[in-house]
Automatic annotation (TrEMBL):
<keyword id="KW-0418">Kinase</keyword>
<feature type="compositionally biased region" description="Basic and acidic residues">
    <location>
        <begin position="583"/>
        <end position="599"/>
    </location>
</feature>
<dbReference type="InterPro" id="IPR002504">
    <property type="entry name" value="NADK"/>
</dbReference>
<feature type="region of interest" description="Disordered">
    <location>
        <begin position="1"/>
        <end position="74"/>
    </location>
</feature>
<dbReference type="InterPro" id="IPR017438">
    <property type="entry name" value="ATP-NAD_kinase_N"/>
</dbReference>
<keyword id="KW-0521">NADP</keyword>
<dbReference type="InterPro" id="IPR017437">
    <property type="entry name" value="ATP-NAD_kinase_PpnK-typ_C"/>
</dbReference>
<dbReference type="GO" id="GO:0006741">
    <property type="term" value="P:NADP+ biosynthetic process"/>
</dbReference>
<dbReference type="GO" id="GO:0019674">
    <property type="term" value="P:NAD+ metabolic process"/>
</dbReference>
<dbReference type="Pfam" id="PF01513">
    <property type="entry name" value="NAD_kinase"/>
</dbReference>
<comment type="similarity">
    <text>Belongs to the NAD kinase family.</text>
</comment>
<feature type="compositionally biased region" description="Polar residues">
    <location>
        <begin position="24"/>
        <end position="33"/>
    </location>
</feature>
<dbReference type="GO" id="GO:0003951">
    <property type="term" value="F:NAD+ kinase activity"/>
</dbReference>
<dbReference type="Pfam" id="PF20143">
    <property type="entry name" value="NAD_kinase_C"/>
</dbReference>
<keyword id="KW-0808">Transferase</keyword>
<protein>
    <submittedName>
        <fullName>NAD(+) kinase</fullName>
    </submittedName>
</protein>
<dbReference type="InterPro" id="IPR016064">
    <property type="entry name" value="NAD/diacylglycerol_kinase_sf"/>
</dbReference>
Length: 599
């Protein structure tokens, strides 16, 4: 996978470039300007670019220790055994959710980032890498990059993808990455007057002439007219600093730079972002600085649905499971991060896709017999896919819709029919996906499927499917288990289930989970993704939830990776906090009498 002699290997691999043969090193230099992906996804791609394994058949040869039978196949105590590849028999090569896979969906710049990586020599205790960025603003269709939609992967591909992300996360845990940062994305709450002055001070520090690099700082467009942030005042402060320096060096009143030129140059370095820019051009940003609490970090995950720059979070919120750095030390923290590098932790995210049922509609036909008749067909599908059901009126149309069976369409005889449902939006989720009753006064009725199996039906206020990172959020409030963020699992917890027997369950992250509203449910349900984008799920609709190939890159405090999570739940949630039990207190005489009896 990370073999330095492999011609398929890319320079982003965690291998010292000194060990690369010269013929490969030259080709890497030639490809240094090719536009590929951001850092994390280039590293993932490097694991995928392995030389193909040549196989003469679907059988592999496995060598096992030979028992003392003296057979002719026994060679040096070992014998050869043929092992059959039963991936097909186990369904590992079958697409887990083929519904609507021919529908092309516009996605936001899935993989559009040029990131040539250079790997210097190792130090005694760590490795460092250097990152540069090349932008590529071309859009893509999901049908053109269908491998990015994990629900369309086979079971085997999903397992390999999840394993690749975990393996890369494990490797990055012991590696310090040094970035060549030019563009910095500054994120804070634009309505919090306590945080806005801090964001301004941080922007002022980044724009200062004392920095070794002239950073371009992007701030929320909502702060452009905010009086506390005072954009014009900030620009003039920085410009006066540069103009004064130029005058001192040239001993000319106006200086080479001049105040006017300094203001113009500073305006070019202080820019503004909005959600559309984050969706369309995420490769613009090299580094994200978050000022706030966990909600601010979740918003960063929501803004960067595919490409996620490394996120360094300053703790300025309430709890702060995701915010690791003290803002009072931001100068030393950022100086160290930019000059010495950072340790990145890849947090598992879910990919959630809303699937809409195609309603059966009438279509007029002229049969050979007498009179007119109609047939039902799936909405938006060619006549070749018509369902051979004749109807007489609109009531029969609705009745045929209610008679459809979601279980049959997802895991039964109709599971391979791609035209029963269509995709209607995909979201990358860091905390949880919640399907609940919404504004309906009654319970929601949902079905839960895992791969090709029907798990259960739930009558409850809703169901929460959480990532390990989100186990301390809604999952905790609903009575779910706490889970270390490095565990590769999905946590499924019912919200106020109307039963005594439903217990929270933990599933592997290689499952494609589907939560749907049956056709005969009394009411619709509502889905939310990290508490955002509330979407109504009508009868027949469902949501697929699977591990995403786009993890969230969170910068960690050096040397605190192992104990950080336990300390967080102990300090912020009071985990297992209890008054210590008092020891027995005995009289001295009783203690001496007991010792004499023992002797």
């Amino acid at each position: 996978m990370f073999d330095p002699t492999s011609p398929y290997r890319r320079k982003s691999s965690m291998v010292n470039s000194a060990g690369i043969p010269s013929r490969f090193r030259q080709s890497n230099r030639q490809n240094a300007t090719k536009k590929t992906e951001c850092l994390v996804h280039q590293l993932l791609e490097s694991q995928k670019q392995r030389p193909p394994v040549s196989r003469r058949s679907t059988q592999d040869t496995v060598v096992v220790p030979e028992q003392e039978d003296g057979s002719a196949d026994n060679v040096n105590g070992y014998r050869a055994v043929q092992a059959d590849d039963d991936s097909d028999d186990k369904g590992l090569n079958t697409v887990l959710d083929p519904k609507g896979k021919e529908d092309g969906i516009e996605v936001c710049e899935a993989v559009k980032k040029g990131t040539p990586i250079s790997m210097p020599s190792e130090t005694d205790d760590e490795k460092t890498t250097t990152k540069t960025i090349i932008a590529d603003p071309q859009p893509q269709k999901l049908s053109e990059i269908s491998e990015t939609d994990s629900r369309l992967l086979t079971k085997k591909q999903l397992i390999e993808m999840a394993w690749g992300v975990r393996e890369l996360s494990r490797r990055l845990g012991s590696v310090r990455l040094r970035f060549k940062v030019k563009s910095i994305f500054l994120l804070t709450k634009p309505y919090d007057n306590d945080l806005i002055p801090k964001a301004r001070a941080l922007a002022r520090w980044l724009l200062s002439k004392d920095r070794d690099v002239q950073y371009t700082v992007y701030v929320d467009r909502k702060l452009k007219d905010d009086r506390h942030f005072d954009v014009q005042g900030l620009i003039h402060e920085v410009a006066r600093e540069f103009a004064a320096t130029s005058e001192d060096e040239t001993n000319v009143d106006d200086g080479n730079m001049g105040m006017h030129y300094a203001i113009t140059a500073t305006k070019q370095r202080l820019r503004f972002w909005d959600e559309e820019m984050c969706r369309a051009r995420p490769q613009t940003f090299d580094f994200v600085l978050s000022l706030g609490g966990d909600g601010t970090v979740l918003y960063a995950s929501w803004l960067f649905q595919r490409i996620v720059p490394p996120v360094l979070s300053f703790a300025l919120g309430s709890l702060g499971f995701l915010t690791k750095f003290d803002f009072e030390k931001y100068e030393s923290t950022l100086t160290s991060a930019f000059n010495e590098g950072v340790t990145v932790s890849l947090r598992l995210r879910f990919e959630a896709t809303v699937m809409r049922t195609r309603r059966l509609k009438k279509r007029k036909t002229l049969p050979d017999g007498d009179g007119d008749s109609s047939r039902l067909r799936f909405d938006g599908v060619d006549g070749e896919e018509d369902v051979d059901v004749h109807i007489e009126n609109e009531e029969e149309d609705e009745e045929a819709q209610r008679k459809r069976d979601l279980v049959e369409e997802l895991i039964g005889e109709e599971k391979d029919d791609e035209h029963t449902h269509r995709p209607d939006g995909t979201y990358e989720v860091l905390n949880e996906v919640v399907v609940d009753r919404g504004p309906n006064p009654t319970m929601s009725f949902t079905e839960i499927f895992g791969d090709d199996e029907h798990f259960t039906s739930i009558l409850a206020d809703g169901v929460c499917v959480s990532t390990p990172t989100g186990s301390t959020a809604y999952n905790l409030a609903a009575g779910g288990s706490l889970c270390h963020p490095e565990n590769p699992v999905m946590l499924v917890t019912a919200i106020c289930a109307h039963t005594l027997s439903f217990r929270p369950i933990i599933l592997p992250d290689t499952i494609v989970l589907r939560i749907g509203v049956p056709y005969d449910a009394r009411t619709s349900s509502w889905a939310s993704f990290d508490g955002r984008e509330r979407i109504e799920l009508k009868q027949g609709d469902y949501v697929t939830i699977s591990a995403s190939r786009y993890p969230f890159a969170a910068v960690q405090v050096p040397g605190r990776r192992g104990e950080d999570w336990i300390n967080s739940i102990s300090a912020k949630l009071g985990w297992n906090t209890r008054q210590r039990q008092k020891p027995f207190k005995e009289e001295d005489g009783d203690h001496g009498a007991r010792e004499s009896k023992e002797h």
